[in-house]
Design brief:
Rossmann fold, 16 strands, ATP-binding, DExx_box_DNA_helicase_dom_sf, DNA_helicase_UvrD/REP, hydrolase activity
Length: 645
């Protein structure tokens, strides 16, 4: 069965309207499976989107005959519409075979949206295109091997650090190892750690996300025909290895079309660079075209954002607002993070038509909760605001990876389902034995070898586990859930698992409950596991409550918000040491932090509310005088009530 089964398209999905079954292409690459993504945070705006009528700048980009094109698309300038129209132009006007077109997106959610819009424009032809993230496309190009998600990879790297006697932070070590494996500089200790980590991966017959890219880069021979026309979205955030993949895939292609915005380059810690467009121009002649008309934000919002970003190299930007004047941007100072969270909760209730908040600001027509988003620099900041919203009964959905995914009981449960869906996944079986059953490593290795041999001989997983002498509870779980997997949603499966005696102890229940609230966004366990393995921040979501409510406030980090838009945005946590980050990274890091602020501000369509706990961010000094400044009036709870937060 193997990993191919885990990443195949389920039968129910193959039969969904508008989705064709995966089909082999001439190059042997399978047409990409549709990924069941969480509901689109800006789905309301998408549903009301008018037919795309390109302006002059967009039309030039859509119809360019240049072999290599870079489109510099500022926020809200119709980047996705231009990308869709460019692909349609290749098919309708240039006669391109849809199977010869590959579009690379930054998230699985963006890939699903792009495929949906192309299907509406081109019908069944869209199903023949290759559309996905770098990691998803590389996975389809390579032979199947177990894929470690971020939490499993971190655990494996942690064991390598321990074996080396290191006491370094795993996150920092992961950044160093990724840099070294990608061909970057590293100390002798970092190179040794990278080698040990790769050896540990090889011993498990597994890959991590970096390995997907590197192995695809090492594939021999010319790129397959699906890359005849290559389009790359969010190009400003590709890292060095992804840049090399673009170079490899576009070698000999008929067209390369990249689109993005250097002012929205916010992944320097992953090796991305705002200079990527100029570096692309150094490879070969490049036709560079701008998109400068902003259709998303009011002039007040765009003006405030431009006043900030002009302090980065390049000076004043040329973006222009197409919309009529709107409400002024508000900057609200608070005494601290708790005051900020309470004020945001009360203000959201007021905007939604509640009467809890008495303020001099006139109450507008009531807005649905789904119109509103709260963005922060870090997940820790979001956690405080989530507590305040939940305390006031405001439904919310949190985007991004959750620390609960690193919990041992959670990892053990997910490993069981990964093993049942892909029995050749040795890493999943190892996690079942060590995390769930507490089998010592040496004995686990022997059991694993026995089970894998029995599976290779054709035994079913439950029988192979029992015959190899694995703990009876593991064999029993395998038998029970093998029968349930095809029929039940992932949340229900995980609830059944947690109800089994001894599987999830009290110490792990909170983490498990958070993962249940992530699983509610997926219809099948393979969808959920695929999102965990390949998903970016925006692809993973958690409902703040047992059931998902479509009318919910969206909570996400600034990184997760990239590419999204909302009528009302609260940009919170604008505190010294948070944005910009307290970590000293020099001028380049300061510029990236300013770009992150710019990204957050330009998510807003109608209203932008900035909140700043003391001491405020120095970036606020760059805002124009037209921004309305005020001090939050918040009554803090007494000591007994504080325990509720």
């Amino acid at each position: 069965m193997g990993q191919a089964a885990l990443f195949a398209v389920p039968a129910a999905e193959r039969e969904a309207p508008g989705e064709g079954a995966p089909r082999p292409q001439a190059d042997g690459l399978t047409e990409p499976a549709h990924v069941q993504a969480a509901p689109d945070p800006s789905a309301g705006a998408a549903a009301a989107r008018p037919a795309f009528a390109p302006n002059e700048e967009q039309a030039r980009a859509i119809t360019t005959a240049a072999r290599r094109t870079a489109v510099i698309a500022g926020p809200g300038t119709g980047k996705t519409g231009t990308l869709v129209a460019r692909i349609a132009h290749l098919v309708e006007a240039c006669g391109a075979d849809p199977a010869a077109i590959t579009a690379v997106t930054f998230t699985n959610l963006a890939a699903a949206q792009l495929r949906e819009r192309l299907a509406a424009r081109l019908g069944a032809a869209a199903a023949r295109m290759t559309i996905g993230t770098f990691h998803a496309i590389c996975l389809r190009l390579l032979e199947r091997r177990p894929l470690l998600d971020q939490e499993e990879a971190a655990a494996l790297l942690g064991s390598c650090l321990s074996a080396a006697g290191g006491e370094r932070d795993v996150r920092r070590a992961a950044e160093a190892v990724s840099r070294v494996r990608g061909g970057g500089a590293g100390t002798e200790a970092e190179r040794a750690l990278a080698a040990a980590y790769e050896a540990a991966l090889a011993a498990r017959g597994a890959r991590d996300l970096d390995g997907l890219l590197l192995d695809a880069l090492a594939l021999p021979g010319p790129p397959p025909p699906c890359f005849t026309h290559l389009l790359v979205d969010e190009f400003q955030d590709v890292n060095a290895v992804q840049r090399r993949l673009v170079r490899k895939w576009s070698a000999g292609s008929e067209s390369l079309f990249v689109i993005g915005d250097p002012d929205q380059s916010i992944y320097g810690f992953r090796g991305a660079s705002a200079r990527c467009f100029s570096e692309l121009a150094e490879d070969a002649p490049l036709d560079t075209l701008p998109l400068t008309q902003n259709y998303r934000s009011t002039p007040e919002i765009l003006g405030a954002a431009l006043a900030v970003i002009k302090n980065n190299p390049g000076g004043a930007r040329s973006l222009r607002a197409a919309r009529a004047d709107g409400a002024p941007v508000r900057l609200v100072y608070t005494d601290g993070p708790l005051s900020e969270g309470i004020w945001i909760a009360k203000e959201i209730a007021r905007l939604a038509g509640g009467t809890q908040m008495h303020t001099a600001v006139a109450t507008p027509a009531a807005r649905p909760f789904s119109d509103m988003a709260v963005l922060c620099r870090t997940r820790r900041q979001l956690a405080r605001i989530e507590e305040c919203l939940r305390h006031d009964g405001i439904p919310c959905v949190v985007s991004g990876r959750d620390d609960a995914l690193s919990d041992g009981a959670v990892r053990g449960a997910l490993a069981l389902f990964r093993f049942l869906l892909a029995p050749q996944d040795a890493a999943a079986l190892a996690a079942c034995l060590t995390e769930t059953c507490a089998v010592p490593a040496q004995k686990a290795a022997a059991l694993q070898a026995d089970v894998q041999a029995r599976l290779a001989a054709g035994e079913a997983p439950p029988a192979a586990l029992a015959a190899a002498g694995c703990p009876p509870a593991l064999a029993s779980d395998a038998e029970q859930f093998c029968a349930l997997l095809p029929h039940e949603a992932p949340r229900r499966l995980l609830e059944r698992y947690a109800a089994l005696p001894g599987r999830v102890t009290q110490a792990h229940r909170e983490a498990f409950a958070r993962v249940l609230d992530m699983a509610v966004f997926h219809r099948r366990m393979e969808d959920f596991l695929r999102a965990l393995a390949l998903g970016e921040e925006a692809d993973l979501r958690r409902a703040a409550g047992k059931a998902y409510r479509s009318g919910a406030v969206q909570l996400m980090t600034l990184h997760a918000s990239k590419g999204l838009e909302f009528p009302v945005v609260f940009l919170a946590g604008l505190q010294q040491g948070a944005l910009p980050s307290a970590q000293d990274g020099g001028a380049d890091a300061s510029e990236e932090e300013r770009r992150l602020f710019f990204v957050g501000m330009t998510r807003a369509q109608d209203e932008l509310i900035l909140t700043a706990p003391e001491p405020p961010s120095p970036f606020l000094d760059e805002l124009p005088a037209a921004v309305a400044r005020e001090r939050a009036r918040v009554r803090l709870p007494d000591s007994r009530q504080l325990r509720l937060f």
